[in-house]
Amino acid sequence: MTTEDIHAQVREKYGAAARQAAAAKSSCCGPNPLAACDPITSNLYGSEETSSLPEKAVAASLGCGNPTAAAELKPGETVLDLGSGGGIDVLLSAKRVGPTGRAYGLDMTDDMLALARENAKKAGATNVEFLKGQIEAIPLPDASVDVIISNCVINLSPDKDRVLREMFRVLKPGGRLAISDVVIRGDVPADIRRNMELWVGCVAGALREDEYGAKLRAAGFEAIGVEPWRVYRIEEARDFLAGAGLDADALAPHVDGKFASAFIRARKAVA
Asked: Is residue 247 classed exposed, middle or buried when 0-12, 13-18 and 19+ CB atoms within 10 A define those classes?
């Protein structure tokens, strides 16, 4: 499968997700219709964070963590969110960096960008900007941002090494990254890797914990940490495997505890 094929599949799925959120359709999961009772995307933000955000920004949240909580953002910083979707993490970041800071969101899906800009307008956020582009080619100058965040998006890229090199390029010396992503903790059956729906759904394109660290080091980062915080068990695996049309009974025992949401942190050296 080519890079273009993967980008097209991701764009199609998340474009549909943006349209669903824009239409404010409901489902069994109540406040986040796109989570569809998915254990990966559910219960990531506290009510004190979401209560002041536009409903559609919360509805379009499809991440696997809360990177803004891990980033330790400071007033005046410039933040970049890779794969910003409906804008929830950009809007939360904008509040934390304040009026002297700036929060960029980068997404390649027109429907998500339109939704994010609408959400920013509703939130009255004046220190945000949403850019169209791919995370493998970030449309910002060298050394232009203090912090990079991302929420379950790096694993969707077919060229993660290039993404990490781009992240390193646009960070200022001493800049840092704090991203949420799905990681693999052991061997995974080939059927999982081959299944495009699971790739687009933040599972099949995931890296092993040790791979993540090695790739970050190769890109030039230091002070690297990979911290799994939510490990997925058999019963949760049954749901997403069955939803992808796979034999859940046969595969679930092989993926028990093999996938986890993790916070990944690293830093670009000052010199």
From this structure: exposed
